[in-house]
Design goal:
147 residues; alpha/beta; five-stranded mixed β-sheet; 5 helices; globular
Length: 147
């Protein structure tokens, strides 16, 4: 996810020096690449971005709520959308208040996530929500993409 957030910031030049979170629900579970002021944040032992472990519910983590989601382009269930809403609000309120939050998932509409975040945060602190193109972002290198 670190390569994807870095590539995204290079493809979308408006985010180059901003704070960005790039979320993926890959084969190995959820993870996030985090860009802080244009620099990939790795954390101690490279552990930053392990959003699976966030305790977003009483006796349940983010992973517990989305673990039954099949990998690939499937529609998300209501409980998975709820977990995404809580994840965005938690990261915005406690970690870094990112400029943008990128989802590497199939989502038909991000407005419901933004509206739900308003229940947790003032609207001025909700990051810009976008859909990323994981493969394009991951393989982006200084102006060229892998085909």
């Amino acid at each position: 996810m670190n390569a994807a957030v870095y590539g995204f910031s290079k493809r979308d030049e408006t985010t180059t020096d901003q704070s960005v979170v790039y979320l993926g629900l890959g084969k190995n579970g959820p993870g996030a690449g985090i860009l802080l002021d244009g620099h990939v944040a790795r954390g101690q032992f490279g552990f930053r971005g392990e959003v699976s472990f966030l305790p977003l519910y009483y006796n349940a983590s983010f992973y517990d709520r989305i673990k039954n989601k099949p990998y690939g382009p499937h529609l998300l269930r209501k409980e998975e959308i709820d977990a995404l809403e809580r994840l965005v609000a938690t990261i915005a309120a406690t970690l870094l208040n990112p400029h943008s939050f990128i989802f590497s998932l199939v989502l038909d509409d991000l407005s419901h996530i933004s509206r739900a975040c308003e229940g947790y945060l003032p609207s001025c602190h909700i990051p810009r929500l976008l859909i990323g193109e994981w493969e394009e972002d991951y393989f982006f290198r200084t102006g060229s993409t892998r085909h």
